[in-house]
Amino acid sequence: MISQLNHLVLFSPVFERTTLVQNPSSVSRKFQCFCSSRLTHHSKVSVIESAQSPNSPFANRVSRNARTEAQATLFDYLHCTRSFSFTDAEHISKNSPIFLQNLLSNIDTEKDVARSLTRFLRYNPINEFEPFFESLGLSPSELLSFLPRHLMYLSDDCVLTDNVHALYDYGIPRSNIGKMYKEAKEIFGYDYGVLALKLQAYENLGISKATVIKLVSYCPLLLVGGVNSDFVKVHEKLKRLGLGMDWIGGYASGNSTYNWDRMFDTMDFLDKVGYTEEQMCALFELNPALLLEGSGKNVYVLFGRLLKLGLEMNEVYSLFMQNPQVLSVKCMKNLLLAVDFLFEIGMGTEEMADIVANDMEFLSSSRFKRPKTVCKDLKVKRDGLLQMMKEDPHKVLTLASKSKGKNQLISPLPSKHLEKTSFLVRLGYIENSDEMMKALKKFRGRGDQLQERFDCLVQAGLDCNVVSNIIKQAPHVLNQSKEVIEMKISCLTTCLRYPLDSVVAFPAYLCYDMDRINLRFSMYAWLREKGAAKPMLSLSTLLACSDARFVKYYVDVHPEGPAMWESFKMQKS
C-alpha cells in the first residue's frame, strides 16, 4: 500500500464523490389472483406513459380529500379485488403518489372519486408492477428499465415477491428495497428461502441483526453469491482491534458507498506504516469518518501529501491524534486547499511542513480565498504576499480566511451545553460539525438527562449501537422522561408481548403519546384473543393509521368491536 503513495499528485487533492442514496409486519408470501396476467395488451394506467406529475397543474387541482379517497379506493381494489395482503395493499396505496395521480387523471375529481375510480378500475386493468416498484422507492423515471415485459400482475412473478417479502420480513424497510433492486437485481431471483439463509450467514459471523439490516440495505451486493470475503476480512480485523462490525453499523449511512476491499487495505496500510492496534482503534473511535467516508481512500491522499511535505511518520501520527477532526471530509478538504494556497504563493515544502505542523487545527477548520484575491485585498503582489507569509504566517492566513468569525477560538460554553455536546460526541456526532449544531437544537435537557434516557433503552435490552441508530432516526425519543420511556417499553412487552427489538423497525413508536398507545394496543390485544386479528401486526400498522382507518379495520371487524372500543376509550378518559 505504501507504494501507492508514489502515485498521488502532490498538489491536487482527490475526493471520492459518493452517490446519495436514499419499517414492518409479516406479510403473505404469495399473492392470489382471480385471473392470469399473461396479457399482450397494455394497462390503461401507466406512470411511464402519463405526463402527469404532482407538480403539474392537474395535480394542484386535486384536493387532499380526493387523494385520500383515491388511496382508500386503490387499497380496497388491491386488497379486496386483487387479494393482496392487508399490509401490501396499504403500503402500495400510500406510497405510490405519482401512480395514484395518473390514476386520478382518468376520472372527474370533482365528482364522487371513490365511486368513479372503483368503476374505472373495474374495466381498466393496471400494471401492478408500477405502483409496487414506486412504493419500494424507485422513481417513475427509473421504472421503465425495470418493468417486466408481458406481465401486469404481481402474482405472475412469485419469485420477485417472495424475495421482497423475505427482505421485508427480516426487517429491511420497504423504502430501501427499491435501491437494493437497482443495485443488485439478481438477489430478487433467488429460490424461496435462499435469501433468508444468506442473511442468516452474516448473523452467524457474530454480527447483530440490526447491523446486518443496515449493511445489506446500503450494500446489497453483499447478498450476491456467498458471504463477501472482503467484508469478512474487514470484520475480523475490526474484531482484533476491539471494535467489530457492529461499530461500523452504528455509523453506517445510506449517503455513502462502501468498498470493503479498500477499507481492509486502509487498515493494512496503517498497520504497515507503524500504527499499533491500540493506536488504530483509538484513531477509528475518535473519527469513524476515516473508514466510512470514502472507505478509507482519503487516508492515502492525506498521508501522501503530508509525507511529501517532509513530515516524519511519527509527526503525522501525533498530528492526527491531536486533531482527529482533520480526517473528516470537510476538514481534510480545507487542509489540502490550504496546502495548495501555500504552494501557489511559492512557499517551499519545508516551510509548508512547519506551518501545517504548527497550525493544523486552524488550517483544517478554515476555508481560504485564492492567492489572487488575497493579493488584491492586501494590495501587494505575489512576492510581497510570500514575504508576509514568511514573517507572520498566521496573520496572513487569518486575513486569507473566508470565514473570520469561525476561525477564532470558541469561548468556553456553559456547562449544560458542554454536557450535551459530550453526549452527542459519544453518540457519533463530530464536534462543531453542522450535524452537531442541528442535533443540539433537537435534543432537550441536560447532557446527563439525555444519557440517562439513552441508558434506559440500553438497560431494557437493546444494543448500544441499535439505540444510537434509533436516536438518530427519531431524536425526539430522548425528549421524554426516563419514566415515560420505561412505560412505553413495558406496554410493548407486557400488553402486546412483543419483543423489545420491534422498536428497531419503527423507532417512532417511542414518540407516540401513551393514550394512543394504550387505547390501540388494548383493542388489538382483545381482537387477538377473539381470533379476529393476526398475531404480530407491525407497530406502524397499529399506530400510524388514522382513527377512522383503525376503526374500520380493527374495530368494526368484530360484532362486539365497537362496544369494546367505546369501553376502552372510557377507561382511558
TrEMBL record:
Domain of life of the source: Eukaryota
The entry's keywords: Transcription, Transcription regulation, Transcription termination, Transit peptide
GO molecular function ontology, one term from the record: nucleic acid binding
GO terms under biological process: DNA-templated transcription termination
InterPro entries according to UniProt: MTERF, MTERF_sf
Family classification: Belongs to the mTERF family.
Protein name: Transcription termination factor MTEF18, mitochondrial
Lineage: Eukaryota, Viridiplantae, Streptophyta, Embryophyta, Tracheophyta
Gene: LOC110761442
